[in-house]
Amino acid sequence: MTLRDVAVGDELTPMNFTVRARNIKMMAAIMQDSTPLHFDRRYVESQGHSGLVNEGPANISYVTQFVLEQLESPVDLLSLETQLEAVVTEGDTLTATGTVEDKRTVSGRRVADLDLTLDTEEGEVALSGTATVRLADE
Known about the structure:
Layout: E1 15-18, H1 21-30, H2 41-46, H3 56-70, E2 77-84, E3 93-106, E4 109-120, E5 125-134
Antiparallel strand pairs: 1-3, 2-5, 3-4, 4-5
Protein backbone atom coordinates (compact mmCIF):
# COMPACT_ATOMS: atom_id res chain seq x y z
CA MET A 1 0.00 0.00 0.00
CA THR A 2 1.21 3.51 -0.72
CA LEU A 3 -0.10 6.63 0.86
CA ARG A 4 -1.35 7.63 -2.55
CA ASP A 5 -4.33 5.31 -2.34
CA VAL A 6 -5.10 4.90 1.37
CA ALA A 7 -8.58 5.11 2.81
CA VAL A 8 -9.73 6.08 6.27
CA GLY A 9 -9.34 3.04 8.51
CA ASP A 10 -6.47 1.50 6.53
CA GLU A 11 -3.63 0.09 8.58
CA LEU A 12 -0.09 0.74 7.40
CA THR A 13 2.38 -2.14 7.14
CA PRO A 14 4.00 -2.48 10.59
CA MET A 15 7.76 -2.03 11.07
CA ASN A 16 9.83 -3.80 13.73
CA PHE A 17 12.83 -2.52 15.67
CA THR A 18 15.14 -4.29 18.12
CA VAL A 19 16.62 -2.19 20.91
CA ARG A 20 20.34 -2.83 21.34
CA ALA A 21 22.50 -1.88 24.34
CA ARG A 22 25.23 -0.35 22.15
CA ASN A 23 22.65 1.96 20.53
CA ILE A 24 21.30 3.03 23.93
CA LYS A 25 24.82 3.93 25.08
CA MET A 26 25.60 5.72 21.82
CA MET A 27 22.41 7.79 21.99
CA ALA A 28 23.13 8.70 25.63
CA ALA A 29 26.62 9.83 24.62
CA ILE A 30 25.33 11.88 21.67
CA MET A 31 22.76 13.54 23.90
CA GLN A 32 25.34 14.02 26.68
CA ASP A 33 22.92 12.24 29.01
CA SER A 34 24.82 10.83 31.98
CA THR A 35 21.75 9.26 33.58
CA PRO A 36 22.88 5.82 34.81
CA LEU A 37 19.71 4.21 33.41
CA HIS A 38 21.37 4.27 29.99
CA PHE A 39 24.74 2.69 30.83
CA ASP A 40 25.06 1.33 34.41
CA ARG A 41 23.64 -2.19 34.65
CA ARG A 42 23.87 -2.39 38.46
CA TYR A 43 21.95 0.85 38.82
CA VAL A 44 19.36 -0.27 36.27
CA GLU A 45 18.78 -3.55 38.14
CA SER A 46 18.49 -1.67 41.44
CA GLN A 47 15.69 0.34 39.87
CA GLY A 48 13.81 -2.81 38.84
CA HIS A 49 14.43 -2.68 35.09
CA SER A 50 15.39 -5.73 33.04
CA GLY A 51 18.08 -3.92 31.06
CA LEU A 52 19.46 -0.56 30.02
CA VAL A 53 16.67 1.95 29.43
CA ASN A 54 16.27 3.34 25.93
CA GLU A 55 16.34 7.10 25.44
CA GLY A 56 12.88 8.55 24.79
CA PRO A 57 14.07 10.38 21.66
CA ALA A 58 15.25 7.04 20.25
CA ASN A 59 11.72 5.69 20.60
CA ILE A 60 10.41 8.77 18.82
CA SER A 61 12.96 8.16 16.06
CA TYR A 62 11.58 4.65 15.47
CA VAL A 63 8.10 6.05 14.84
CA THR A 64 9.53 8.85 12.70
CA GLN A 65 11.41 6.30 10.58
CA PHE A 66 8.22 4.26 10.24
CA VAL A 67 6.26 7.28 8.98
CA LEU A 68 9.02 8.42 6.61
CA GLU A 69 9.13 4.94 5.04
CA GLN A 70 5.51 5.48 3.96
CA LEU A 71 6.21 8.78 2.19
CA GLU A 72 7.67 9.71 -1.17
CA SER A 73 9.71 12.52 0.41
CA PRO A 74 10.65 13.49 3.96
CA VAL A 75 9.09 16.91 3.39
CA ASP A 76 5.72 15.16 3.15
CA LEU A 77 5.76 14.75 6.94
CA LEU A 78 3.89 17.88 7.98
CA SER A 79 3.56 17.27 11.73
CA LEU A 80 4.36 14.63 14.32
CA GLU A 81 3.19 14.58 17.93
CA THR A 82 4.19 11.83 20.34
CA GLN A 83 3.65 10.81 23.93
CA LEU A 84 6.02 8.41 25.69
CA GLU A 85 3.90 5.84 27.51
CA ALA A 86 6.18 3.09 28.89
CA VAL A 87 9.81 2.24 29.55
CA VAL A 88 11.68 0.49 26.73
CA THR A 89 14.74 -1.57 27.59
CA GLU A 90 17.55 -3.29 25.72
CA GLY A 91 16.45 -6.45 23.99
CA ASP A 92 12.89 -5.24 23.48
CA THR A 93 11.41 -5.79 20.06
CA LEU A 94 9.16 -2.89 19.15
CA THR A 95 6.52 -2.68 16.45
CA ALA A 96 5.49 0.64 14.94
CA THR A 97 1.95 0.71 13.56
CA GLY A 98 -0.25 3.33 11.99
CA THR A 99 -3.87 3.75 11.00
CA VAL A 100 -5.31 6.36 8.64
CA GLU A 101 -7.72 8.38 10.77
CA ASP A 102 -8.73 11.08 8.28
CA LYS A 103 -8.10 12.32 4.75
CA ARG A 104 -8.80 15.86 3.62
CA THR A 105 -7.64 18.69 1.39
CA VAL A 106 -5.73 21.60 2.91
CA SER A 107 -4.73 24.55 0.71
CA GLY A 108 -5.26 22.43 -2.37
CA ARG A 109 -3.07 19.53 -1.14
CA ARG A 110 -4.30 16.11 -0.08
CA VAL A 111 -3.27 15.19 3.48
CA ALA A 112 -3.91 12.32 5.86
CA ASP A 113 -3.89 12.12 9.63
CA LEU A 114 -2.30 8.99 11.06
CA ASP A 115 -2.76 7.44 14.48
CA LEU A 116 0.57 5.91 15.56
CA THR A 117 1.74 3.47 18.21
CA LEU A 118 4.99 1.83 19.17
CA ASP A 119 4.25 -1.42 20.98
CA THR A 120 6.45 -3.87 22.87
CA GLU A 121 6.26 -7.56 22.05
CA GLU A 122 4.26 -7.96 25.29
CA GLY A 123 1.60 -5.68 23.82
CA GLU A 124 2.39 -2.66 25.99
CA VAL A 125 2.13 0.73 24.28
CA ALA A 126 5.56 2.36 24.60
CA LEU A 127 4.62 5.45 22.58
CA SER A 128 1.45 6.86 21.07
CA GLY A 129 1.12 9.70 18.64
CA THR A 130 -0.27 11.28 15.53
CA ALA A 131 1.16 12.52 12.27
CA THR A 132 -0.18 14.61 9.44
CA VAL A 133 1.32 13.76 6.07
CA ARG A 134 0.99 15.08 2.55
CA LEU A 135 -0.36 12.43 0.19
CA ALA A 136 1.22 11.73 -3.16
CA ASP A 137 -0.61 13.17 -6.15
CA GLU A 138 -3.05 10.81 -7.78
